[in-house]
Amino acid sequence: MMKPLKTLLVLFCCAACCGAQNESLTIGPGDTVHVKVLESPELEQTTRVTDAGALTLILGGKVQVAGLTPAEAAVAVARVLVEEHYLLTPHVSVITEQTATENVTILGQVRTPGSYPIATPRPILDVLALAGGLNDVAQRKVTIQRHSNKERVDYVLSNSANAALDGNIPVYPGDTVLVPKADVVYVLGDVNRPGGIAIVTNDSKLSALQALSLAGGTPPNAVPSHARLIRKQPDGTHVEQQLQLSAMQKGKEPDIPLQGDDIIYVPFSYARNMAVGAGSLVGATSSAAIYRF
Fold first, then answer.
1. Number of Cβ atoms within 10 Å of the Cβ of 227
2. Is it the case that residue 255 has pLDDT exceeding 90?
3. Which class in CATH covers the domain with range 103-179?
4. Backbone angles phi, psi at 105, to 5 degrees
5. Which neighbouring-strand residues pair with 211?
6. By three-state DSSP, how is residue 46 classified?
7. Per-residue pLDDT tens for 19-43?
């Protein structure tokens, strides 16, 4: 058996040889790869990576390569050949000849979800553009599931252009991109632009006064001092409470954070406020326009 130091030196030589490939695209299940061993032409082979992420060598058995770049896979193959005592100083190259899929799947809150062909890694912003970009109710946090090893990576499409571009991570062929739906709150009644407001801030937070402002504020005849907040409970029921918007605007009451599906209702008059029940307001949200800021 080789001494540890000698084995380490051998593997270092193999890694130095293989590192020149400098690939960024990782190998995944179903990919077809070409393996060459400089010292032993008879070990050259073209083989498919199994669903379990391994390739089967002519000598050495199975080698796990899913999630590795071709250069890293070459080092893994060389290590097996050394450890199994088939070769002393193997120089291995691994090339991906064909990927199992060259599509990226984009699902969720985009304009045109579907599968789109990409042959090389593409920045996430480019990939989202293939699907027409985010729609009006898309959340800012996008999840990417890697084709090669099922790892999930989150990317926040920041409202800041610099932050969005700085964090523009790559998407690989076969990856799946999921854009979830943002939470929506509703501002109804006597406001200048009643409807739903998607919470598409970077931190997914919105306060009562911010929502009121995004709804265009209130006209002179509105009664914000008698506003109500209707909030959905975990069991699906709704509870309501008085919402002192006038006092909040004057700084006499603290602004409050909103939750998804919250409804703020600003009455046209005190009598009208008493007549409009929570049930009718919840029903009104189904036909409310959704705005994105």
1. 25
2. yes
3. alpha beta
4. -100, 125
5. none
6. strand
7. 434 456 788 888 899 999 999 999 9
Taking 90 as the threshold, does the pLDDT of residue 169 lie above it?
yes
Q: H or E stretch including 163?
A: helix 161-166
Q: Are 36 and 92 in contact (CB under 8 A)?
A: yes
Q: Domain segments of the chain: what residues?
A: 4-98, 103-179, 184-291
pLDDT at 118: 87
Q: Would you state the structure tokens that stand for residue 220, as one six-digit string?
A: 């002179």
> Distance (Å, rounded) from C-alpha 246 to C-alpha 250?
6
Length of the chain: 293
3-class SS of residue 102: coil
Top CATH class, 4-98: alpha beta
Token reading at 6? 């000698």
Select from 168, 176, 126, 167 the least CA-distant residue to 149.
176
What pTM was computed for the model? 0.62
Which amino acid is residue 55, in one-letter code? Answer: L
Q: For residue 94, which phi and psi values (nearest 5 degrees)?
A: -130, 130
Class of domain 184-291: alpha beta
Asked whether this chain's domains 103-179 and 184-291 adopt the same fold, the reply is yes
Strands in 75-225 per DSSP E: 92-98, 103-108, 114-117, 122-123, 141-145, 152-156, 170-171, 176-179, 184-189, 195-198
Within 188-277, residue ranges assigned H as helices are 208-214, 245-249, 270-275
* 93, β-bridge pairs: 36
Laid out side by side, the sheet with 141-145 consists of 114-117, 103-108, 176-179, 141-145, 152-156
